[in-house]
């Protein structure tokens, strides 16, 4: 296949030697992330005390979103390994799922921060009605998450309708090199805008919540210390899952969003820069288990229940080995 348009000369490097290395890395990280998130989802759904907290449902939705995104990167590994200049359709299909799923993932830290703020902030509103409280009421949690997943897909429809999915110049299957400013703007106003707005909302509500906790610290300690501890631990998770992607995703965002104006780097350098982004999704469920007491206690109970039968079996085998054999 001859590419006469120099705009797409980067495709020779895209399917070059570095593609195999990124495919192996993506395959390994994606499998670990999917297994970790399935464990977290199962842990949450099978524990009644975890299901009763609405914030945990947003953490669950975040985990589902990360699982879908990792599954898309699993497909990306397959597309990089088996794709070629003559077989580009696979990368186009995978790219659509990667961009749509990462758009969904970007929104969850903001939703968790806003929901926790309205749950712990018990000051009556002067107007008697709050859109935020209505949106994040317990009965609205699942519809809100389903609506967000649906909106994440709708936001990327202009790219789908204009055949914009394919080999991203930064080295993964996403949005192929843009040839028109309107398409680039559509990309900027979908996934990139969601990324920026979500980070901003998360920061705003994080600091609003911290300020509110400090202001009402005395009264909260007298009423419900458990609520304060839970909120503090959840917000630590939110801070980490916001700052880490902000750091590791910035090279990917800059390379992808600025592809029409930035100088073209060697493909292997682009892929080295974007690879750390996958690690944040792998760490998210374990950060939640490690930092949030409800999840940590349930995890330790589960590990103890697994360990005790194993220890008992070892003890029984040891006793059997020490039992004298009766000679006939």
Automatic annotation (TrEMBL):
<keyword id="KW-1133">Transmembrane helix</keyword>
<feature type="transmembrane region" description="Helical">
    <location>
        <begin position="93"/>
        <end position="114"/>
    </location>
</feature>
<keyword id="KW-1003">Cell membrane</keyword>
<feature type="transmembrane region" description="Helical">
    <location>
        <begin position="240"/>
        <end position="262"/>
    </location>
</feature>
<feature type="transmembrane region" description="Helical">
    <location>
        <begin position="181"/>
        <end position="207"/>
    </location>
</feature>
<keyword id="KW-0807">Transducer</keyword>
<protein>
    <submittedName>
        <fullName>G-protein coupled receptors family 1 profile domain-containing protein</fullName>
    </submittedName>
</protein>
<keyword id="KW-0675">Receptor</keyword>
<dbReference type="InterPro" id="IPR000276">
    <property type="entry name" value="GPCR_Rhodpsn"/>
</dbReference>
<keyword id="KW-0812">Transmembrane</keyword>
<keyword id="KW-0472">Membrane</keyword>
<feature type="transmembrane region" description="Helical">
    <location>
        <begin position="135"/>
        <end position="161"/>
    </location>
</feature>
<dbReference type="InterPro" id="IPR017452">
    <property type="entry name" value="GPCR_Rhodpsn_7TM"/>
</dbReference>
<feature type="domain" description="G-protein coupled receptors family 1 profile">
    <location>
        <begin position="36"/>
        <end position="288"/>
    </location>
</feature>
<feature type="transmembrane region" description="Helical">
    <location>
        <begin position="268"/>
        <end position="292"/>
    </location>
</feature>
<feature type="transmembrane region" description="Helical">
    <location>
        <begin position="22"/>
        <end position="45"/>
    </location>
</feature>
<dbReference type="GO" id="GO:0005886">
    <property type="term" value="C:plasma membrane"/>
</dbReference>
<dbReference type="Pfam" id="PF00001">
    <property type="entry name" value="7tm_1"/>
</dbReference>
<dbReference type="GO" id="GO:0004930">
    <property type="term" value="F:G protein-coupled receptor activity"/>
</dbReference>
<keyword id="KW-0297">G-protein coupled receptor</keyword>
């Amino acid at each position: 296949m001859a590419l006469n348009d120099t705009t797409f000369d980067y495709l020779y490097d895209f399917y070059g030697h570095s593609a195999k290395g990124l495919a192996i890395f993506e395959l390994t990280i994606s499998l670990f992330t999917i297994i970790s998130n399935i464990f977290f989802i199962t842990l949450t759904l099978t524990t009644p005390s975890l299901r009763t907290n609405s914030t945990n449902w947003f953490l669950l939705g975040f985990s589902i979103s990360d699982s879908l995104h990792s599954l898309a990167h699993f497909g990306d590994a397959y597309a990089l390994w088996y794709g070629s200049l003559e077989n580009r359709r696979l990368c186009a299909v995978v790219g659509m799922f990667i961009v749509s799923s990462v758009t969904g993932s970007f929104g969850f830290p903001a939703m968790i921060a806003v929901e926790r703020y309205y749950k712990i902030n018990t000051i009556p509103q002067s107007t008697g009605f709050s859109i935020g409280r209505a949106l994040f009421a317990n009965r609205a949690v699942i519809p809100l998450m389903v609506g967000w997943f649906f909106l994440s897909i709708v936001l990327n429809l202009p790219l789908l309708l204009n055949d914009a999915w394919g080999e991203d110049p930064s080295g993964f299957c996403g949005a192929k090199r843009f040839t028109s400013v309107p398409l680039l703007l559509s990309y900027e106003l979908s996934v990139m805008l969601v990324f920026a707005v979500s980070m901003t909302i998360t920061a705003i509500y994080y600091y609003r919540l911290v300020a509110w906790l400090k202001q009402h610290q005395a009264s909260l300690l007298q009423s419900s210390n458990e609520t304060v501890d839970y909120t503090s631990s959840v917000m630590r998770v939110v801070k980490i899952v916001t700052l880490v992607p902000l750091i590791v995703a910035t090279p990917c965002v800059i390379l992808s969003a600025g592809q029409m104006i930035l100088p073209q780097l060697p493909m292997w350098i682009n892929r080295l820069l974007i690879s750390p982004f996958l690690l944040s999704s792998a760490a998210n469920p374990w950060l939640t288990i490690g930092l949030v007491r409800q999840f940590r206690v349930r995890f330790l109970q589960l590990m103890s229940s697994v360990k005790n039968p194993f220890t008992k079996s070892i003890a029984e085998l040891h006793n059997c080995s020490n039992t004298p054999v009766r000679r006939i």
